[in-house]
Write the structure tokens for this entry.
Amino acid sequence: MALDTPVKTWIFQTKNIGKVLIGILGLATSISALVLTVLFREIDKNNPFDDFVLSETVHSIGQLGRETLRLQVLLVSLSEQSEVSLLQQQFDILESRVRIVTIQSDYYSLSPSARLELQIYIDNLDFVLSHKPDILAKSITPQKLESITTLLAEMEKTAHGISIENQRYIQRQQKSSALLKKRLFVLLVVTYFSLLFLVITFFAFMIKFVKERQKTLAILNSSEERYQKIVENAEEGIWVLDPSKNIVFLNSKLARQFQTKNGELLNKNALDLCASEEFKVLFKEKILELTVAGAVSFDICLKDRENNRLWFYVNNTFIDFYGDGEQYILGLLTDITKRKKIEEELKMLNKRLTHQANVDELTQIANRRYFNLYAIRMWEQAIREKKALSLALVDIDFFKKYNDYYGHLQGDICLFQVAQVISGAAQRGDDLAARYGGEEFVLLLPGTDQQQAIAIVTEMQDKLAALKLKHQWRDLQGTVTLSIGLVSGIPQEAVSLEKALSLADKALYQAKHDGRNCYSALQF
């Protein structure tokens, strides 16, 4: 039954902001450490000198120089004391050292200049090795031997230079790698603390925002509570219908009026509460009017849980109930059941009063008052339409003697029976039979000419004769009869209704003069 209350989102609760901040800082720290580790590994992967032992590289290249020098010494003393086996062994050692250095150069990059010098060394060694057979056979000429010895001296210098150059190159690469790591570390630290500052700043603003939001929510909740109290304590019933006319909200007042519990009518279609199909159609029509007018009011009859009929004055307007732009129907329902009952009683009372004012109590046909009002209207209409009209004054013959002989009670019965016969002659919609006074009646026949009127009154006399209402008094030995004065014509402005009635009275007098139980007809 209550209106929807906004629920605080978990993150917008002040006590949880610190937890979120700590979680974000921990996550940022973990991500930073992971990124730093990945970057360092990538640097190490692309730097072959990071794990390279500097002494082993220097030793390999330096050993190459020393072995070259040893071969040079052996060649210098070749003619004196050098043995072939020592030379062979030295050549093998030197070739082995060259292969080792070549393999190391594949795994550990040399500087461009060192690689060039190494290639020169290998080319020179190939030249020396090309003379290896002559040297071992000691058949090489002194000039050629001197040239080879000089070349070996240069090769020894070359090896020494390669060792020094490569050592410097490796140191430069290692320093560059270390410097890159330091820069990355510093950059990551600066980035981390910058992000940390931004996060802290963001959460500072977030805390401020949350506090302002909580303050606003507190104001809204307080306002909503006041409106809720107003709605729940309103004298009128209140409901909200969705576009399909289903009830999405109603206040306690309306729930009590329908004799239902809280929430029992929610999601129930309002059309199902209409007391009849007629009111369902009315409700639909008014809602269609609402889409055009924007507001509409009407009376409608609904039914409660016990199918009791309840009348409401409903004032409907459109409302954006959930704030999503969809049009809902807000209805204020004022209980007018008591008023409707009073109105119905007044209608019945007015109907009875109207009946009493217009109907003769004894004969239950129109009285003279109503006849006068109705006759004027029909007379004016006949003038406008230029149609014929007939009027008959009817009198019960010797009714006073009938009353004296049979008594007033029987006289009243006789009046009623005669009135029903005369009323039966007024068969068309505009015809009227009325009691004109005492035992006198009047018959108004709009749209009827004289010939038609004569047929009607003749038939009326025949029907009365068929009843055989006894009328016995001294010389009278018969039944109740009628004398009729009939006038017919087309009403004109020059002829008034009063004149027509006067002519009818003369015709009635003539009928009585002619012996009664007959009619006399005149034209106006």
